[in-house]
Amino acid sequence: MKKLILLGIILLTTGCYNYLELNDIGIISAMAIDYKEDNYEITYEVLNTIKEPTQETPKCYSVTSTGSTITEAIQNNNNKLAKTPYFTHLEIVLITPSVNLLDVSDYILRNNDITTNFYLTLSDDPKSILSFNSLNNPINSQAIKNLLKKNNLDKLEEQFDFKIANLLDHKKDITIPSIKLDKEISLSTNGIYNYNNFIRYLTDEEQTTLQYLTNNNEFNLTNDKTSIKVKSSKTKFKENNNTLNIDTNIDALILSLNEIYNLKDNNTYNILEEQYTKTINNNITTLINNLKKDNSNILGFKNISEIEPNINIKIKIDKTGSLFEVAS
Amino acid sequence: MTKNQQFILTYYLAKASFFGLGISKLFNTSYSYTPLSSLIGFILGFILLYYITKKDLTKLYNNIFTKLLILFLAIVILNNSVLAFTNLSANFYLSKTPPIILIIPLFLLIFYGVKKGINTISRLGEYLFIVSIILIFIISITSLFNIKLTNIIITNYNTYNFIKSIIMTIVYGVSPIILLLTLTDNIDQKSILKGYILGSLIILDSIINTIGILGLTLTNLYHYPEYIVLKKLTILSFLEKFENIFAFKWFIDLFMLCLICACAINKIIGSKLILIFGFILILLTYFFFINNYQNTLIIYNISYLLMLFPSIILTLTSKKRSNLSKIS
What is the DSSP string of B262-277? Predict the structure, then answer.
C-alpha cells in the first residue's frame, strides 16, 4: 500500500503535465489594442528566444490580428503565433483613445493567464510603435518602460488594475500617459478621461501644471527666457463648499537667466519668485477651468463643475551657486 | 504532543481558513472596516478559546451525536481547504492542468499523513514552521513600503455587517482549533493561546497589507486579493515575481489544516473506511464544487454558518476538564 501511494505521488506530482520548452513559448512583452471600423486590432510584441539574435532575427517581432470582439482578436492573434502565448511578462499595453477600457479590463481581469502588473499607455498608432526598431532599446516595450521610469510613472498605482479600480471608484477620473513616434519612441502628454470616455490629450503647459499639482518631483519651468528647475513641490487641496483652496509650496533652482537679471542683486530672486508665482497661478487656473469645461475630474474634487479655485503659491528659489561672473 | 507542537499546530489552524475564503469574504462583508472588525473578532476569539481550552473535547468522541457533529465540521473545513488549495493551484500555478490531477496527489498525501498519525503531522508542522515564519517575515517587511494609509480609512459604516464580520473572524479562526482540541489529550492552554495570538496577528497583518496596498475596490474585485497583493511586492525595488514562492505560506497552512481534518474523520470512521470516504469526497469536491462555480459561491457564502453551529454545540456540550489545575 505504502509503495502504491509513493508511486502515485511520484507519478502525479512531477509537474510535467503539459510541459513546454522555452523555445515553444511566445513571451509577449507588449500588446497594442486598437478599435477601428467596429473591429479590434491586436498586436503583440513577442520576444525572440533564439540564443543570439542577429540582424535578420531581431530581439523581438510583432504579430497582428483583428476580430469583432477583443476575445476574438486575441484568439486570432494567438492562432497566428506559432508558439504558445505567454503573458506573464507583459510590461506595456498600448491602447488607442477609441478603445473601451471596461471591455479590455473585463477580459484581462478575468483571465488568470494575463498578468495585471503592466502599465497602460495611450497612442494614436500603437501598432507602428510596436513594429518600430528603436535605437534606445532593441525591445520597444523596454524603451517605453524606461521612459515611464524616467518620468516617475512606474509606480504601483500607475499599473493597469489600479487605474481600473480608480475608474470603477467614480471618485476620480483617470489620466493615461501617451507614447508617440517621432523618429524615435518618446513620451508625450497624458490623455484625460471622463469615466470610460477619452476626452483629449493635455497640452504641454497643462502637463507641467498637473505635475506640480500631483507632487511629481523634478521638472523644468520656463518663463520669458528664464528657466527654473522645480526640485520638489507639495500641493494641498481643501474644498470648502464651492471654493477650492490650493496651497502649493515649491522649491526651485535657477537653470538659466535672461541678461537683464543680475544674481548679485538680492532683489532679483524676489522678482523671479513673483514672476513664477504669477505664471503658476495662471497655469493652475487655466488647467482647472479647462478640466471644468471637459468635465474631467482627474484631481478627484467633489464637484468639479462648480468649483472656484483660490490659489496660494509659495516659491522658494535656492540661492546657492557655484559660478562666478566672467570679468569683461 | 509537545507544548511546542501544540503552539505550532494552533498557529497554522488559526490562519488556514482565512485563505481563499475568510479574507475575501470578510472584505466582501465589512469593506473598509475589515481591519477593525477582524481585530475585535480576534480578541473575542481569544476569550472564547480561553474558555474552550478549559474543557475536555476529547470526550466528545464518546457520544454519537457529537461524533457526527465533529465529522460534519471536519468535512466542511476539509472541503473548504481543498477548494482553496485546488482553485489557487489551478488558477495561478498550473492553469492547463485539470483540477482532478491536483486533487488526487493532495488526497494521497493526506492519506499518507493520516496513516502516520498526529505525532508525525506535528513534527512535520515543526519543520514547516521555520519556512512559514521566514516567508511571512519577508512579506511583511516588503509590504510595509507599499502600504498607502489612505486606503485603510473607514468609510460607509454598517453595524449589521460589522457584527457579521466579527462573527466570521471568530468562526474562521477558532473552528479549526476545536478540531485540534478534540484530538489532543494533554492540552497546554498557554501554547494553544500563544499559537492563536501569533496566527491572528499574521492574518491581521495580511488584511492590512491587502487593503493598504490594493485599496478597497481592487480588493473586492479579485477573488484571491491576498494572493494578488503578493504579485505587487518587489524585494529591494528590483526583485519581482516572487508571488509563487510567497504563496507557499498559504499552502503550508492549508495542508496542515487538511491533515488535522482528515485525522478527526479517521478517528470517527476508522482507517478502513477512510479511503472510500476520501474517494467520495474527491468526487464530491471535484464535480459538485470545482466544476460548478455557482455551488462554490454558495459554499463561499454559507460556510461560516456551517462551521459556526457545530462549533457552538460542541463547545456547549463538552465538559470541564477534571485535571484543570495541571493545564496551565
Answer: HHHHHHHH-TTTHHHH
